[in-house]
Amino acid sequence: MAEIDELLRQGKRIQAIKLHRELTGSGLSEAKEAVERRMR
């Protein structure tokens, strides 16, 4: 998840969502929600 946090710090939200999906196997909406929670 550190990689996702780094992408978010760089403002690369879409790449962070894609990476979350690859790492967890989650769907698009689940990954989007999870990444948005990490942004707060």
TrEMBL record:
What protein is this chain from? Ribosomal protein L7/L12
Q: Which organism is it from?
A: Streptomyces halobius
Record InterPro entries: Ribosomal_bL12_C, Ribosomal_bL12_C/ClpS-like
Q: Which domain of life is it from?
A: Bacteria
Lineage, uppermost ranks: Bacteria, Bacillati, Actinomycetota, Actinomycetes, Kitasatosporales
Output a single Gene Ontology CC term carried by this record. ribosome
Boundaries of every Large ribosomal subunit protein bL12 C-terminal domain copy: 11-37
Chain segments annotated as coiled-coil in the UniProt record: none
List the keywords (alphabetical).
Answer: Ribonucleoprotein, Ribosomal protein
Gene3D superfamilies per the UniProt record, alphabetical: 3.30.1390.10
